[in-house]
Amino acid sequence: MKIGSKEHKELFCHSFLKSHLEYEPERLSWPNLDNIALESLQTIPFWREALNTEQEAGVMVNAFAAKISDPLLKEAIALQGMEEVRHGRLIKFLINQYDIQISPPPEPVLPSNIKTAFLDFGFGECLDSFLAFGLFGLARDHISYIPAALFDIFDAVLDEEARHIMFFINWVTYLQIQEGKSNWLRGINALLHYSRGLQDKIKAFSGSNKEQQEGFTATGASNFIDNLTPELLLSTCLQENTRRLGVFDKELLQPQLVPNLAKIALATLRLIPRRQCHSITQLSEP
Ligand SMILES: [Fe+2]
Ligand SMILES: [Fe+2]
Predict the structure, then answer these.
(1) What b/e string do you get for 228-250 counting C-beta neighbours within 10 Å, with b at 16 or more?
(2) Does residue 1 lie in a domain region?
(3) How far is the CA of 211 from the centre of ligand 2 (A)?
(4) Ligand nearest to the CA of residue 165, numbered in listed order
(5) Rounded distance from Cα 270 to ligand 2 centre (Å)
(6) Residue 196 lies in a domain
(7) 110-163 pLDDT tens trace
(8) What's this model's pTM, rounded to 2 decimal places?
(9) Residue 272 CA, ligand 2 centroid: distance in Å
(10) How many Å lie between the centroid of ligand 2 and the Cα of residue 264?
(11) Domain that residue 128 falls in
């Protein structure tokens, strides 16, 4: 199968459409939480940002789907829009169910250029999902006071995000090949969108809002996981990324840039103590 061909489009669209899960957030088996679990959930400060992101995504992705003329692509992107709206409902339900206090997020506003917004959002999701896969894996392994049933609910959400980034990276490559863009131009485009996605994240978590500022430190998860090192976080992100994306058809493209950067960062971090040891040995040699 040739990447950018009609067969490629059919494979990534059908793979996305067929793997859709039917569920209603309000009817899931939300577990009762003891006081420790409840308090820990209530003090995680990123719920408002998460709700805002999912609600904005739902509106924007649905608006983008409405502009697509290819029926198969339209169906797939509309399904993603529906899933993002459902993520917003799921987080809203969790906030109400566990009495989490947040100030209401702003009403979603449609961006002026929806295609650019969808591209920025898609690359941003590649970045977010990679980090979320690792943080979730660490939380599930290290936080015993949260019931497994609650982890199960978010496990399904992360599998949906894995489907979204797989769909996105294949769609954007298909689109750019159809538009006649060369390899290097596609690389530059990806870098531009990634950097805008990163800037959006930094803006979201460094705003004047106290919840936003607290949210940034919470994403480090060090409040919840003892002895969390950058090495442990990066290696778990890589393992979880491989595990979650490993279930997809091997002919499909996978997001590469973020995992590759993480591999470089991890190799560099692993090199630092060895260099220090080496220089200590050298110093102690007669
Ligand atoms: Fe989502
Ligand atoms: Fe998503």
Answers:
(1) beeeebbbbbbebbeebbeebee
(2) no
(3) 22
(4) 2
(5) 32
(6) yes
(7) 999 999 999 999 999 999 999 999 999 999 999 989 999 999 999 999 999 999
(8) 0.87
(9) 36
(10) 26
(11) 6-284
